[in-house]
Write a structure and sequence with these properties.
With about 350 residues, the chain is an alpha/beta fold. The chain is about 30% helix and about 25% strand.
Length: about 350
């Protein structure tokens, strides 16, 4: 009789298993994270978020490109995309890194070239509709602007291009002093390493603050979510953009220091120019920069004034003198904010 009871209990248990009474809850499906890559993409822009969002295997992170051909990053790294637009898993999260210039027609490289690629813009528009989150890094924000996803939103991007953001999206308000800006679904980050901050913030939204802190600790990153350190907020971004025409790739930085109201940097420039000719060249470049006007000069220094969009007046200057090595010049640039804004 005892054996019959045991057999009956065993039979009932087996039947319950097959009927689903003891079926375990299926494991939660991982979110798909699609990271766009393209020729000229900035390496840290996509690898930083890849590391953060993919750690501990919490999500299915993959790179995606327009086609399956290897892409060449801005520094020459060759990368084979995991998927193409045609065969990708449907993304729940999209990361749009930056790279290169934002000017269109960049011979197929960088963000600028991709802004002219309607296949890329269409992919962003179509996949962003159902995505849970869309995050840009650096000048990847211009992808969002071109796709119409930054309308009436505050946003940030890398320092060198942040002032151009309203030209692409007139209703967008640039944010200069945040490493990332969260609009709920749409997140933008400042340049380069700020993509790690944005990804950690996204990790916090997905997994909670403890997971984000543990991830930052694991990658040995000093994450400060409330940090207002950004390159776009430093005074050096007020210097003329076309100084790049003076500073060649052979120029060597000697010192750079300052804060939000003062900046000074020194360079050694290999050149056949005299110090006087160098100052004349600098003045030519500065005179072509909107808003800048010359206020004075002598043999070794040129002085300028500039009023930015907020009404703040800045005093800029440049000096040039022979360096210790023959054929080189020591060139310094500086800028200081007036104590009062223009008109006060």
């Amino acid at each position: 009789m005892k054996h019959l009871i045991q057999l009956s209990i065993a039979s009932l248990f087996t039947a319950a298993l097959f009927s689903g009474a003891f079926t375990q809850t299926p494991a939660k499906q991982k979110l798909n994270v699609a990271i766009l890559i393209f020729d000229g993409v900035q390496i840290i822009d996509y690898t930083g978020p890849y590391e953060v969002l993919g750690s501990r295997g919490r999500r299915n992170v993959y790179t995606v490109a327009e086609n399956a051909d290897p892409i060449t990053t801005n520094m020459g790294m060759k990368v084979i995309p995991n998927y193409t637009f045609a065969n990708q898993p449907k993304p729940d999260i999209i990361v749009l890194p930056g790279g290169g210039n934002i000017q269109t027609g960049e011979k197929g490289r960088g963000v600028g070239a991709q802004l002219e690629n309607q296949n890329v813009i269409n992919w962003i528009k179509e996949n962003a509709k159902d995505a849970k989150y869309v995050m840009s890094v650096c000048n990847g924000a211009f992808f969002l602007a071109k796709a119409g996803l930054l309308e009436n939103l505050p946003a940030t991007t890398t320092a060198g291009f942040i002032s151009s953001l309203p030209k692409f999206s007139p209703t967008t308000k640039p944010v200069y002093d945040k490493r990332f800006v969260d609009n709920g679904k749409i997140i933008t980050t400042a340049g380069l390493s700020a993509g790690i901050d944005g990804a950690l913030h996204l990790r916090e939204k997905l997994d909670g603050p403890r997971s984000a802190k543990a991830t930052a600790l694991g990658i040995e990153y000093n994450w400060q979510p409330d940090s207002d350190y950004t390159r776009a907020s430093l005074a050096d971004v007020k210097l003329p953009n076309n100084l790049g025409n003076v500073l060649t790739s052979a120029s060597e930085p000697i010192d750079m220091k300052g804060d939000r109201r003062d900046w000074e940097e020194k360079w050694v420039i290999p050149t056949g120019m005299s110090a006087t000719d160098m100052l004349a060249s600098i003045e030519k470049e500065w005179s072509g920069e909107k808003g800048w006007s010359k206020t004075g000069a002598d043999k070794s220094r040129t002085k300028w004034k500039f009023t930015d969009d907020s009404g703040q007046t800045w005093n800029g200057w440049a000096t040039a003198e022979p360096a210790s090595e023959t054929g080189k010049l020591l060139v310094s640039f500086g800028i200081t904010a007036d104590k009062k804004k223009a008109g006060e």
